[in-house]
């Protein structure tokens, strides 16, 4: 599918947003510890932008859809209005890149004992695949049954079994993690016996999470063109718990005609810049990073089908706009580069693309200050990931951020989430990661997860806007210190991630 088919009028929109005024130089020497435009970061403006970007009208901003592109144009227009210069491709605010998406085709058909099964309501195909299945169902009570029977070429069914080890208590999306691990382990064991297809009936732990698990499977697989397509050797289906009785009945028979859609369409990064004031240091960039996409429209939960993504990550998208307004008012010695990445929720694809195809020389990026989810939980708590080993890749950058927190925001910092053994692995789940892997000093500002994470309950009305404003000022003050320090930051020589 070509870009022009998904974004009518894109050329007009890009043209309208292409230009803005040049930033005048200012005189004087900037102080790294005295950010001059803190008061330009205002709670009222952050609230206004947050309720716009996280509104139902944005439809959850799912990557690769017109909704994501509409949100990107909204961000670019706000950046233009703030006086930020375009820094994307071809003199625009935009960097379009192709997403390779593979989904289960909506014309796929399934039936059990001749009764149709509704795709994404009764049964979920766990990986896109083109396959035909027909035949009797062999029910297994346990994996021990695989030793006593020849299952080659059979359609097997059984209840989902708990994975080993179980997800730890209180982990985010525990039901989804449980289901994904269980399906992966169980289907691997059955595939080793040469089965032709697998049907797993949800257990009591998975059944309440089917909407969330199913939302993931319905999304399909998103890849950049350079990434290999994960193999799907045989069909693996997840069905509702109540279907187990029918699958166990004598002469149960299953039929499926599964097809896939395989196509490319655009995602988008938004890139803007405020030039620095120092004749030499302005050639270097302090990069402020966030993502503007979220999960889009899905199966309704309590009557709500829109995953608004207010905290994840409209909070940081509007924070970057606020920092941009402050930087425009009082530019730093180094230039400020703002990148709103697309397709973060699909696997950090926008930041991966930008690292491989930067719109400024990669060597000019002196530091990356990334934010993800900055508006929930206790008013005085926050976290700075990348601040402790093995995730710290620049001691000097960490010290600047800690000093800025001490002087400006005064949060109590929770370092436990930076531990390599933390079960969330939160460091590896946001857009700073590709930059850190590329050798660029990088930090991750966050107020951490909460029960509304990746649910339709992540609404703007639940955001602590006062806290978000403090987090925004902390990011700004840290970036100001990076911009004003004469010496360029370096990466720690012993930096090596655990995975």
From TrEMBL:
It comes from the Bacteria. InterPro entries: M28_fam, Peptidase_M28. Residues 269-476 form the Peptidase M28 domain. The keyword Signal applies. The keyword Coiled coil does not apply. SUPFAM superfamilies: Zn-dependent exopeptidases. One of its GO terms (molecular function) is metalloexopeptidase activity. Residues 1-18 form the signal peptide. GO terms for biological process: proteolysis. Keywords: Signal. This is M28 family peptidase. It comes from Hymenobacter taeanensis.
């Amino acid at each position: 599918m070509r870009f022009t088919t998904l974004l009518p009028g894109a050329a007009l929109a890009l043209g309208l947003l292409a230009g803005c005024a040049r930033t005048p130089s200012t005189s004087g020497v900037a102080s790294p510890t005295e950010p001059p435009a803190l008061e330009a970061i205002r709670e009222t403006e952050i609230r206004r932008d947050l309720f716009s970007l996280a509104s139902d009208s944005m439809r959850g901003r799912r990557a690769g859809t017109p909704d994501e592109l509409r949100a990107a144009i909204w961000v670019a227009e706000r950046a233009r209005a703030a006086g930020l210069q375009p820094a994307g491709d071809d003199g625009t605010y935009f960097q379009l890149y192709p997403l390779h998406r593979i989904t289960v085709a909506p014309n796929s058909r399934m039936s059990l004992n001749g009764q149709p099964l509704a795709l994404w309501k009764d049964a979920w195909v766990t990986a896109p695949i083109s396959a035909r299945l027909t035949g009797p169902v062999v029910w297994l009570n346990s994996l021990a049954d695989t030793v006593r029977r020849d299952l080659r070429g059979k359609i097997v069914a059984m209840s989902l079994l708990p994975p080993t080890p179980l997800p730890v208590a209180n982990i985010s999306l525990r039901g989804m993690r449980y289901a994904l691990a269980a399906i992966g382990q169980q289907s691997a064991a059955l595939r080793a016996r040469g089965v032709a297809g697998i049907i797993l009936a949800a257990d009591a732990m998975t059944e309440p999470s089917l909407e969330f698990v199913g939302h993931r499977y319905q999304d399909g697989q998103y890849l950049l063109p350079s990434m290999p397509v994960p193999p799907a050797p045989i069909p693996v289906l997840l069905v509702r718990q109540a279907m187990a009785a029918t699958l166990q009945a004598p002469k149960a028979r299953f039929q499926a005609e599964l097809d896939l859609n395989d196509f490319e369409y655009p995602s988008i990064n938004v890139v803007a810049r405020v030039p620095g004031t120092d004749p030499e240091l302005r050639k270097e960039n302090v990069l402020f990073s966030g993502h503007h996409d979220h999960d889009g429209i899905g199966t309704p939960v309590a009557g709500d089908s829109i995953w608004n993504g207010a905290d994840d990550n409209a909070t940081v998208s509007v924070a970057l706009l606020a920092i941009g307004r402050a930087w425009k008012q009082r530019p730093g010695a180094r230039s400020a580069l703002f990148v709103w990445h697309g397709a973060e929720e699909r696997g950090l694809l926008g930041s991966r693309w930008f690292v491989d195809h930067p719109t400024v020389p990669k060597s000019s990026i002196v530091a990356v200050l990334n934010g993800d989810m900055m508006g929930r939980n206790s008013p005085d708590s926050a976290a700075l990931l990348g601040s402790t080993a093995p995730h710290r890749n620049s001691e000097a950058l960490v010290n600047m951020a800690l000093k800025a927190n001490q002087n400006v925001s005064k949060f109590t910092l929770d370092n436990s989430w930076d531990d390599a053994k933390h079960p969330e692995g939160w460091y590896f789940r946001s857009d700073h990661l590709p930059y850190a892997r590329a050798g660029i000093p990088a930090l991750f500002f966050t107020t951490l997860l909460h029960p509304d994470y990746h649910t339709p309950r992540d609404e703007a009305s639940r955001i602590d806007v006062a806290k978000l404003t403090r987090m925004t000022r902390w990011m700004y003050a840290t970036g100001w210190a990076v911009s004003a320090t004469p010496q360029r930051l370096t990466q720690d020589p012993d930096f090596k991630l655990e995975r």
